[in-house]
Predict the structure of Iron(III) transport system ATP-binding protein.
Amino acid sequence: MLESVHLVKTFGDVTAVRDVSLGIKPGEVVGLIGASGSGKSTLLNLLAGLLDLTSGTVTLNNERVKGPAEQLVAGHPHIKLVHQEYQLMPNVSLRENIAYALRFYEKRYQTYRVEQLIQLCRLEAIQHRLPRQASGGEKQRTAIARAIAEKPAVLLLDEPFSHLDLPNRELIRGMLLDLVRNEKTACLFVTHDATDALSISSRIGILQDGQLVQMGVPMEIYRRPYNAYTAQMTGPVNLIRAKYLPLMGIIHAYPPNALACVRPEQIRLTDRGRFGGTVRNIFFKGAFMEVEVEINRFVNLTFLASSTEKIKVGQLVGLELSPESVHWMRGSA
Ligand code: ADP
Ligand code: MG
């Protein structure tokens, strides 16, 4: 188990990581979601022992992970970090990049393991190319293959999906899930885009200004976000001030400026709606549409409609929202 307790990192007067405590077990995928500058890369570097911490501790199976100031070679043999820029050696092939990670092993095992990794990471066809002749997805897969070559206990990934198209993201998602299941690797990745995190993580955490503001199972965080930032980082959302909710038939005892979170899929289109408005925008998303409705001068609501629904901009629609689907947030920001 990889664990951090009250982890802090400051650069001059910037606090990049504030009091982060978390644990990742073998066979678990954890995704941390945070905006740019929220401390994601710094946190990963601290967990990997690649950066000296300001205070707190990082341990792997109860043994402290040392920072670069405490040892000759930075890093930990059982914790591997895949950087956002892949950091492959530019002048040798993808295959040789992977083999390099196994250079201290006997030749026969090295060849066997490289073959296995190339298959696992679907690199058969392009293994002899140089990094500059490979696509982003291929380089990402090579970087992952190299990182898992020695079967690390912990795999850390910095924005592994951010530069990839959908087929490559699905491929990497599948690879990570296989790895975690088959090798019981503990896997932690950071991202600014919740889509992949919600679908493959057993738990997700939200990083805001270096702080881990909420951690839990994806559905719980999606439905019951701690604050507006968490709500917005995890998907489309309607943030509604308490004073406007009676308009929608929701009677409550919250102060006028309290913030409620209503996910678009909780609002239903109906002829017998308690309230309604004028359709202002329709965003086609494939299987469904996001429909923006102006309820009054102060409130716009987004709801989801099936793409088969016939809705036009300018049309009046009736809506329905059940009181149970309104989540009141505790945090303000
Ligand atoms: P993220 O990966 O979420 O975008 P980072 O961890 O890169 O965020 O950065 C978090 C904060 O720490 C930012 O304000 C950034 O400017 C600052 N920071 C990161 N690395 C350094 C550094 N080496 N020196 C000074 N400030 C840094
Ligand atoms: Mg980063």
